[in-house]
Amino acid sequence: MFSAMATKYIVLVLAFAVAIVSATEYRRPPPRRSLSRSLLKDLHDIDSTSPQQVHVSLSGENHMRISWITKDPTPAVVCYGTYPGSNGYSANGSTNTYNYVTYQSGEIHDVVIGPLNPNTLYYYRCGVTSSPQFTFKTPPSLFPIKFSVAGDLGQTEWTRSTLEHIAKSNYDVFLLPGDLSYADLYQPRWDTFGHLIQSLASARPWMVTQGNHEIEKIPAVHPESFTSYNARWVMPYEESASPSNLYYSFQVAGVHVIMLGSYTEFGSDSTQYRWLVDDLKKVDRTKTPWLVAVVHAPWYNTNEAHQGEKESVEMKNVMEDLLYAARVDIVFAGHVHAYERFVRVYKDQADECGPTYITIGDGGNREGLAKRFKDPQPKISAFREPSFGHGQLFVVNATHAVWTWHRNDDDIDVASDKILLRSLVSTSTCSLNLN
Predict the structure, then answer these.
(1) What residues does 130 pair with on adjacent strands?
(2) Does the keyword Cell membrane apply (predicted)?
(3) Residues designated as active site
(4) pTM of whole model > 0.90?
(5) Which residues, in sequence order, are CB contacts of 76 under 8 Å at separation 6+?
(6) What would the DSSP string read from start to end of 200-252?
């Protein structure tokens, strides 16, 4: 725990840094081109049995899920160890494919491996023994831990800039609050997205939830929603007793993270609502003092974009009380292509026991930025800027964390917004009201 003097010093340093950045004139650069066409050419050169679009995710305590795609059938097996070239351990998994109108996916493999040691570098191969060797690092089991956060990624030159900055952040777990590939019905864009992010997603766990661009439902042609998303991005929903891959939870190093689904049923009589109630009851704040929620459509938003949508307004009306009563510390959202951070808030008013709401839907998609905010700026909106970027949540210990938003438009990493956060369970006026 920080001493009182150390905490005061950190607050002063952060305030000074933000003041300096805010005082600097910033000229926003122009849009950049899409990468999907050039990435598609790269995919044609990959051998038919070589793993592509490799990504890893957390899968229950001390386990990881390895996912990859091949053009032709290969064994769903992962060999791994703790030194280069090692194959001391192996695990088998499953393979699936899907059809979407005229598109036929490749062979999608999923293998869960473990138990694994925390904060350890592992070497692994997917499928055939001649495949390239990859590495990933498991998250720590104790504080500190760093999360990198970015929503609405897409696959443009801005996406590449964002990913380059994230790669330098030395993060442990990546959180993506929806809108991944921006395939928007054109399925090869799912493949190019997987290719674009592989260098990062194969090395650290990526935990995602769905956005509106993942729905991909075509009435009378393809009536099923989330076909591609559910086939390609299997999350640990079963491990968290969820009936759907569209919402789940996981915990790592003292942080319990709830990934909610904006575009599936969320009413008070829905399975998602009932699951959320049960999941919150299971949270032990002595083991996971930090509680974080991730959703796509923001519940708080002062941007002119995406105002009044039911996925925001109605979901907030139904679930805000649950998150407030559980003392959720932070709620991340995407959807709006800009950055905005709110003070701790509840029922549209500043409340020291409410979550800090952060919209970070500015990863780099082709639709561009949402540049128009409501004027004047409401008091509950602490910082807002329509720029591409990503965020870093550095959870120092059970009581304190540092949130930083990094504007990536500059092609250099500019920390434009910083704040020191204190966990609600360590705040006596809030923890006393916990059930």
Answers:
(1) none
(2) no
(3) 306
(4) yes
(5) 92, 93, 94, 95, 109, 110, 111, 127
(6) HHTTSBEEEE--GGG---BTTTB--SSHHHHHH---STTTTT-S-TTSEEEEE
pLDDT, one tens digit per residue, over 136-156 is 999 999 999 999 999 999 999
In a 13 Å sphere around the CA of 434, the CA atoms on its Cβ side amount to 19
State the virtual CA torsion across 393, 396, 397, 403 in degrees, nearest 10: -30
Query: Please, which residues bridge with residue 90 across strands?
Result: 79
DSSP string, 279-329: HHHH--TTT--EEEEE-SS-SS--BSTTTT-HHHHHHHHHHHHHHHHTT--
Looking at residue 87, its pLDDT comes to: 84
Q: Please, how many CA atoms are within 13 Å of residue 65, restricted to the half-sphere of its CB?
A: 21
Nearest to 247 by CA among 280, 285, 273: 273
Nearest to 198 by CA among 161, 167, 177: 167
How would residue 31 be classed by pLDDT, with cut points 50, 70 and 90? low
Task: Please choose, from the candidates 301, 299, 293, the residue with its C-alpha nearest in 3D space to the C-alpha of residue 393.
Answer: 293
Report in angstroms the alpha-carbon separations of 360 from 22, 224, 296, 342: 18, 28, 10, 12
Q: Pull the structure tokens for residue 270.
A: 């829905």
CA distances from 398 to 285, 290, 425 (A): 10, 7, 9
Helix (H) / strand (E) element for 75: namely none
Q: What dihedral do alpha carbons 384, 385, 388, 393 form, nearest 10°?
A: -30
**What is the chain's Cα-based Rg?**
21
- Closest alpha carbon to 391 in 137, 151, 143: 151
For residues 93 and 78, the answer to whether their CB atoms sit within 8 Å is yes
Residue 82 has pLDDT above 50, yes or no: yes
